[in-house]
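[RESIDUES AND BACKBONE]
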Amino acid sequence: MVHEEAREVESGEGVTHRLCSWVNGLALEDIPEDIKTRAKYLMLDGFGCAIVGAHLPWTEKAVNIVLDMETAGDCLVWGYDKKLGPLSAALLNSTEVQSFELDDWHSLAPLHSNSVMLPALLAAASQQKARANAVITGSNLLLSTIVGYEVGPRVGLCLHGSHMLTRGWHSGTVFGHAACATSVGKLLKLSTDAIEDAVGIACTQACGLMSAQFSSEVKRMQHGFAARNGLFAALLAEGGYSGIKHVFEEKYGGFLSVFGESSGCHPPYLENELVKGLGEIWQTESIRVKPHASMAGTHCTIDTIAGLQKDYPEKLKDLSGVKDITIEMSEAAFKHGGWTAMRPLTATGAQMSCAYVAAVQLLDGQVLPQQFHRDLINRDSIWRLIENTRCQYTPELGQRFEQRVTIAFNDGSSISKTMNAPRGVEPPLTNNEILAKFRTFTRGLIDNKRQDIIEKLVLGLEDITDVSCLDEVLAGSTLDPIA
């Protein structure tokens, strides 16, 4: 049988082992300087998102529940100065990073890398220091984070990237488990075989339903499952626990064969994307940073309407004259953000809805955290616009991010604009813009001195001899941005 033959493949063969061998052998000096620099700015954005998210109502609820059920440990919960075991700390800190749809995403294989890697890596570092008397340096952290940035999107590309969203999978939680396991495995200096064990343990836990986006609070936590489970996998492998070998190429019950089944794509999965261009093509370059506080697929909606506001300021000054709004988009964006929003809507649902963000941009001229306060979500002015908004899949909009917005007025006139991609995708935010975002979004939530310390620590990672100093400054109290 095919699966019996696959088990007979020697451990040195196959894409899984090749990937793990590359991870094991990668050194910081192998990585181009611009990639290392970009990675540090991406990490700063991730920590900024955690500061914004730490004391949002749904985050506080999660933290209080977990603190009540778990005993104290060695790993800090950011924003609370509390300690839990590594798995729970990684879960909660990830929930903070992903709590407000502000965090990074990969433009070809959607996942939120920082919410998976950063919490797991710093939890592993704390565990190592407490239990093994081993100190993790900033260079270790940077290298291990870049490993995760590289692996996660490659897993996603094997499964046709954003097509997983079209099928209803929360793609990042599917792609993120293996990324986290390799990232933490690198931090722990596991052998190639042990990293492959960690990947096999992680992949058997991978899952994530995109229906979480409509109203649940668990949408905020699902990347945390990848952080927790990937960390768990790496710690098990460090202790000698064996995982599934050849997990990506295994034909019977393998990761790609199962998640690729009934994909509708030909071929159903692309095994070689896992190792294609390792060390030459840097997926870190395709990680995008968000300027708006909403799901990435809504950003073209926001920017297209902002373009109409700039082009037709007088026409859009009085919104009572708007008859209807049509938003046309690609299939993945339509299924992810084009669903019909119904009142009452939670903050989770609002941030995932193209109709909602369109109304907010028209009314407020921005889509930032304050737009998702529960009182603002239920404004009658918002819902009058939403009720007259129609989202539709338009096949001719073949590019992944392309959208067209048409606004019709009661006087019979209409205006329309098409955009190929939003700001943050084309062009991506620059490093200076990411720094400005960090400063802007964390201002008032932490004091200026702490802002400055975090900024200097992250952008000067190679000079840090013990990353616990970064963990500790993140653990201090923060404020709720929508209180």
Summary: Strands lie at 75-77, 82-84, 105-106, 287-288, 322-329, 389-393, 403-409, 414-419.
